[in-house]
Structure formats: structure tokens, C-alpha cells
Amino acid sequence: MTRLAGEFVAIQREASLPADAVDVARLGTTDAVGAMLAALDEPVVRVVADAVAPMQGRPEARVLLGHRRTTMDLAALVDATAAHALDVDDYAFANHPSAVLVPVLLACGGAVRATGRDLVAAYVAGYEVWSDLMGREPDHLHSRGWHPTALFGPIGAAAAAASLLGLDARRAAHAIGLAASHAGGTMGNFGSMAKPYHAGKAAQAGVFAARLAAAGMTSTADVLEGERGLMRTVSPQGRVDLSTPPAYASYERIRKQRLNIKKYPTVGASQRVIDSVLAQVAATRIDVDAIERVEPQVSEKHAAVMPYHSASRPEEAKFSLEFAVACALLHGRVGLEQLTVEAIAQPRLQALMRKVHVITTDRYDPDYPVAAPFDFATITFADGSRVTTPPVKRATGHADLPLTVRQLEAKFLDCAVFGGIERPEGRRLFDLLQRLPEWTTEDLGRLQVTVAEEAVP
Predict the structure, then answer these.
(1) Cα–Cα distance, 294 to 279 (Å, whole number)
(2) Which residues on neighbouring strands pair with residue 304, listed in sequence order?
(3) Which end of the chain is more exposed for a tag (fewer CB within 10 A), N or C?
């Protein structure tokens, strides 16, 4: 597996990529850049950027698309922390691929003057290697306490970095093997600054592993699949599939799984219930003050990643189904403006959150194994009457129910404006990102210079 991953990274740089795989790379890059822009002034981003500033080093890559420069790995650290800071970034195969991969593309791509074709190939390489590993594990890593983005993200990042840095198959395999030594991160840090740092350190580790491999550092040849390798070590029940050969060349995983784009800045497990509640709010007038109890129903596995039954901080609210449901009922929307300390502290919101009681089911959708067949909520009023919100099988933005280009643009512009970027500048950036596959060696620089005129750091 380790060797084959390295061979794939080296070979696919020159391969003809399927159009739908290219589309995924463009979508993921657009969404991750929007998420970064929204988080430009977030506390965790300021902390990481300030910590990195004294290190400086060779000025290879821009930080947060601005004027400051640092080494590739440190730039990837800051950018990926920002991309995941507000939890508005995309997800797929129970991981957050773009928040890790896109900062690697920006950092390494800027340093080597990559074309759009180079960037797309690197994204696809990272996605395929990463998703292949995740797909081998039949048991639920989150339930064991692992955060898969922190666990396998370094390996996907190393594959993307190795692609952009032009590593041959042997050195690409060593980069992937070295990145396995950086794997780790638990759900115990959800609801804190450390959660977005998981994405940051994954991107940083992948870039640094590729640099070490380029310089001649080696790793064990079977570190992914070996008896004491990563996959056996972290497998909750030891049932990981290590016998099926990877099907990298078919690009099957990226073409089938694609990306789920979040419409709301909360954990992916909450998206379907929010859609359901908002559909009910739009259809009928709900007297929030007359509500006695609300029971959203989700799968046990989805409930496991939303452990905060009360929330006073944005870091907690993102992982609170009680917050998501109460916010949707009270405000008729769940957006970045609702995820501030002041908004969360509103007495009416807090009172409504205390009336939300999550119900779980052990029934699962065979096509979406961590999710229930559908999500909904039952609202009980003081007079005894009840309303059941519409069942939602796929959230708006899910790969099976994708956002339209206009909806994606609206999300991107909302993120840009939230981060302090003027709307015309945001629109220019969005349009540029839609042309990603055709970029010349100058276009990544244009993206950065355009943002640098408006961004904070």
C-alpha cells in the first residue's frame, strides 16, 4: 500500500484526469478559500499566525493569502487552521479533505509556481490516497475517539505536497511513510482551538514530510499496512481491510464520494436536521415561546460527534445539536452571525436549547453508513399539540444534492464579507477560482495579491 501510493502520486502528475475529478478539485479549492477568508480574524488564527511570525525562515509561501511570507510548512499550518476554524469547510468520507489539502496547494504551489493543472493533480492525489485509507476501516473511528482528519490528513497532505514538489515514486512513498509518524488527534479536543489546529498540523506535517523525503529521509516500506503499521494500530476492532489493492488509477473514490459542501457553519452531522427544521419554519409559523420540547432524531454515530448539550462559546456551539435546532427555530437561519459569543448567550436561545432533547437511532442508511435513513425533529407545544418536521435524507450541499453555482457563490461571498473582504473583491476571487484548471503559473499569485489588498494579516 505504501509503495503503491507513492507510485500513484508520481505517475498521476502526468495522467489525464477525469472531468468530474477536476470538478471536485475546483469545488474543494473554492470552498476552502472561502472558509479561510471567513476566519481571517478568528482568535485561533491570530494565535497560530502570531506564533509562526517570529520563525520566519525562507519566504517561500504567503500566509493567509496576504503579504506575509514564511516557509511552506508554516504557511500550510496557518492556512489550514484558518480553513477549519469556523467548521464551515467541506467534508467527505467522514473527513475534512479540502481544509487540509488546499492550504498545501497554496503553500507548495506558490513556491514552485504551479499551474492550475499541477494544483488539481495534487489535490486529486491527496484525496485519493487519503480516502483509500479511510475506506479500509469498517468501524467508526469517531466512536473510538479518533479525529480522522488529524489521523489521515497528514498522509493526504504528504501526497499532495509530494506531487507538487515533483518527488519520484520512491521518495513520494517515503513522504507518505514519514507523514504516518505525525498521525493523531482525538475528539477530546473538539470544542476548543485545538480542533482546527488538527487540520493545521496535518497540512504542516504533510508538507514537512515531503521536504524531508526530498532531502533523502526514509521511512519503513510498509508503515501503512505492516504488522505494527498505522492502519492496524488505530483500527478500533482490528478489522481493517489490508488485502484489497488500491484502485487509484480509476479515480473511483473522488468521482463517487465527491464533496459535501456545508450550507451551515456547524458540524456535518447537524446539517440534515437544520434543513428539516428550517423547512418547517418556512412552511408554517412557529410560536417559539409556546414550545415545550423539541426532539431531533439522528443516528447514534452522528450524535457522537455532537457532544455539547449546552454551549456558551462558538467552539462548543458548532458541535451542539441543541444549539443548531434552537438557532434554526429562533432565528430562521444558522449562519456565521449566529455563532458569536453574544448571539449564543441570548437568554431566549439558551432557554430554547434547554428544551431540545436529542433522540438517537441505530438504524442506518446503507448509502451513508454513519447517518440514519433520514433526520427530522418532533416539536411539542405547551397545549399538547405536535409538529413533525419534514424528513431529510440528504442535506442541501451534500454530494447527492449539490449547491448550484449561484448558491456556492453566495456562500463564498458571505464568508468573504464575514472576514472583512469587500463583496466585489470576493466576487473577483470566486470567478478566478472557477477557472482553476486553466490557471497559468501567474494566476495563483494573482489570487494572493488580490486578497492581500483587503485581508487583515
Answers:
(1) 15
(2) none
(3) C
